[in-house]
Amino acid sequence: MSSRLQAEHLYKVFGRRPDEAVDRLRQGADREELRADGTTAAVIDASFTVEPGQTFVVMGLSGSGKSTLLRMLNGLLDPTAGQVLFDGQDLTALSARELREVRSRKISMVFQHFALFPHRSVLENAAYGLEVQGVPRAERELRATDALAMCGLAGWEKSWPDELSGGMQQRVGLARALATDAGLLLMDESFSALDPLIRRDMQDQLIELQKKLKKTIVFITHDLNEAMRLGDRIAVMRDGSIVQIGTAEDILVRPANDYVASFTRDVDRSRVLTADAVMDKDLRGDEADCGCETATPDTSFVDLCAISARVPHAVAVLDGKRRLVGVVPRQRLIGFLGDQQGEPTPCDAPRDKAVKAVKSDA
């Protein structure tokens, strides 16, 4: 499967002699050295791929470069160096007219502050991208109506934006992006202006839509909990550079450095981890058919804890062919709930009981 989106060694430098600044960065200069000369390195050597149907989240604190990176992905900012490839097409080599065509048909964006036209109805706002494309009115209204329904706004088509709550306005922005049927959806801190409960509701909405539509999404956020909830893969940025790329479990269980680890301290691990992340994989077995309660690699941490409470031994983890792929001792679960990274604890006897329970019933 080829990547839908590729960023290759992207740099964005603001200030004097940007090309010279990129050369200095490549030779080992840091951001502070350039800033002393009146130059700002907003993005430094960023590379990643996004697969079709994947939600790729870029997270970092304010000033980390994540929004600048996003704007290079659709040509709103020209990179100082590097390439952006979408479906194999080099966006950095396109003319301004060609870029506008790509943005109108292939790439949609959902902004943080809704960006709705106050003098247009909800339906007209949702249909705006299609209007730009030159789609006939009857077709664009039909497609916009369908998109609004997908976003939970059926019946609000004739309303005005100021009649809607913040969450509903953001749903209109999402519907506008979906109506164009673009291949890539860019979302820049799209939920951060919303109240916590509405924000959670919008996250739920996006998760449900993604299950059905399988869009390719790049989502920008400064909230690690949001990143872990939404992202298939997550890129963590610091001072213009990507310091780690991985799944939510990778970021949580195997942080690349102390900076990444500091983000994970307040994360609710039970909402992120699965049996695959916490199990002891040293013990594996052949095909087994166990009469005791077992887990699969996809079993959530919460469900795993519940199973552990019901069995007198470590929980056996079986794959789809009923083969033993690991075990989860109770103390290991406790370890993952704390600050420690789930290192094994001395409980070989309960673990052996789990293995014997599986194999004796095989």
TrEMBL record:
A Pfam family annotated for this UniProt entry: ABC_tran
GO molecular function: ATP binding; ATP hydrolysis activity
Membrane spanning stretches: none
Lineage of source species: Bacteria, Bacillati, Actinomycetota, Actinomycetes, Kitasatosporales
NCBIfam families hit by this protein: proV
Keyword terms of this UniProt record: ATP-binding, CBS domain, Nucleotide-binding, Transport
GO biological process: glycine betaine transport; response to osmotic stress
Chain ranges of the ABC transporter domain: 5-264
GO cellular component assignments: membrane
Calcium is among the record's keywords: no
Protein name listed in UniProt: Betaine/proline/choline family ABC transporter ATP-binding protein
Family: Belongs to the ABC transporter superfamily.
SUPFAM superfamilies according to UniProt: P-loop containing nucleoside triphosphate hydrolases (SSF52540)
Residue stretches of biased makeup (Basic and acidic residues): 349-362
Residue segments, region Disordered: 339-362
Superkingdom assignment: Bacteria
